[in-house]
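Quick illustration, no need to memorize.
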Amino acid sequence: MGISTILSMGIKTNPIPASMLVFFEFDSHRIQTLEAQRLFEWLDDNGNRNAQLYILEAHADNTGPTEYNDALKLKRAETVKDFLMRQGISGRKIVIRPESEIQEQTKPDFLYRRVRIILQ
């Protein structure tokens, strides 16, 4: 399952207005076209380009070694940071916060392959 499955299942991807979930494919840190489109739209909504701080919570599923997943989380967060900076958001406003792995994941793996952007 991947990003298109998330949208086709009707899973809400923005749990609160001041945040955004960016999903990634398995073993990838590239932002897919559909996710980039969603991110553009989200940035244009409700002044999301004008936040004081963008916290990037980086996640990975628990497939593979912890060290590998930690590196992948950072790559995903850096990719989102680069995307935001290309949209004119200052890198000084962006904080990366890798999250620890959840050992017993209860949702499908693809839901853990994400970066959550939190506005403050």
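Residues 23 and 114 are 4 Å apart (CA to CA).
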